[in-house]
Amino acid sequence: MAAVSESPVFRATTTAPVNIAVIKYWGKRDATLNLPTNSSLSVTLSQRSLRTLTTASCSAGYPAADELTLNGKPQDIQSSKRTLACLASLRAHRQELENANSSLPKLSTLPLRIVSENNFPTAAGLASSAAGFAALVRAVADLYGLPQSPRELSRIARQGSGSACRSLMGGYVAWRSGELPDGSDSLAEEVAPQSHWPEMRALILVVSAEKKDVPSTTGMQTTVATSELFATRANAIVPARMAAIETAIQNRDFPAFAEVTMRDSNGFHATCLDSWPPIFYMNDVSRAAVRLVHDINSIVGRAVCAYTFDAGPNAVIYYLEKDSALVAGTFKAILGSSLEGWSGPFYESLKDVSSPGVALDQVDSRAVDVLKSGLSRVILTAVGEGPVSVEDHLVGEKGEILSRQ
Ligand code: DP6
């Protein structure tokens, strides 16, 4: 049990979203500062489906060493260089405020107690580090009353996990790789808010994975060191795709968005296969999802859905709300409504859909069989907002750890 404190406890609580890249970050030009070899762009997903809730607190009554509890389990902060780097930067910013205004409480000198919970099962195999580090940085920045913008805070979150810098904002977010050796220009920025293109939906097909994949940090270093395709991807292909996807987003042009998204996912996984020894994140179930997306698009005669895969086998399928019956309706007919995850947020437009959007005898029947037997659940979600400050504290007024689960 964490000690209960008699000294004042200062608290701030925030939620933060998951983001799924459509132009992938893969490769570091500086592993210590966590600087990427190429820019990337993601869609922030709705916190109605997936979110991290984090309370940052500090008190003179806490034990001297900073503490972090994730999903009820105390973490060893001292062995996480990334967490230490984030906290050191945040403290330095607070210190600047205290130096400039001596009436401020000296929060930078107090031990921290940070408590964080995800609202989605860890077993879902979804990378939670992006939402986790974004929430940690936002919560401590709020606790310290830091004036830095989300863009400036993204520089700190980036040190926790590269993709985390994109979870500090909502909508459509670019992480500009930057050029400076110190990384000061490697920042995330909102390309378009959620309200610009709110119709974007995402269906996540969670694959029942039996073994752990190569962690992304190690995988990308192997790719940079050994893949012959990699340099072309980073130097020529991604810059052109960044420009193309930003135009597609500005014009709300789904077919263009879809093609760039699918090509970039395929290109990223091609550099994984081209690594030595090769790295495989997609499996037969992932490839069945790819086949079905292409089948649906070709039957409909236009791109109505687009897949993307991160460093694991789960498929994320983007589509527009108006095409819910065609896309999600077809997947629901294939997978059956008893599979976990269909009900819940964003189910409304699917509730009354009883037949598949496209004729099932026209899609690849082997892909249907492989997909049907290979998923553990689905998650229906959509483009969403950035972190939100809330009063749902995970640390009580006396410093005690609370649970919302
Ligand atoms: C495939 O952000 O997890 O999801 O910076 O080493 O923590 P680190 O890597 P991480 O890598 C994410 C890789 C990706 C693509 C993406 O999100 O852009």
UniProtKB/TrEMBL annotation:
Pathway(s) this gene product operates in, as recorded in its UniProt entry: Isoprenoid biosynthesis; isopentenyl diphosphate biosynthesis via mevalonate pathway; isopentenyl diphosphate from (R)-mevalonate: step 3/3
Catalytic reaction equation(s): (R)-5-diphosphomevalonate + ATP = isopentenyl diphosphate + ADP + phosphate + CO2
InterPro entries xref list: GHMP_kinase_C_sf, Mev_decarb, Mev_diP_decarb, MVD-like_N, Mvd1_C, Ribosomal_Su5_D2-typ_SF, Ribsml_uS5_D2-typ_fold_subgr
Class of enzymatic activity (EC top level): lyase
Domain of life per record: Eukaryota
Molecular function GO terms recorded: kinase activity
EC number from the UniProt entry: 4.1.1.33
Keyword NAD belongs to the record: no
Gene3D superfamilies on file: 3.30.230.10, GHMP kinase, C-terminal domain
Keyword annotations from UniProtKB, A to Z: ATP-binding, Kinase, Lipid biosynthesis, Lipid metabolism, Lyase, Nucleotide-binding, Steroid biosynthesis, Steroid metabolism, Sterol biosynthesis, Sterol metabolism, Transferase
Family matches, as NCBIfam families: mevDPdecarb (TIGR01240)
Stated family: Belongs to the diphosphomevalonate decarboxylase family.
Name this protein carries in UniProt: Diphosphomevalonate decarboxylase
Organism: Aspergillus lucknowensis
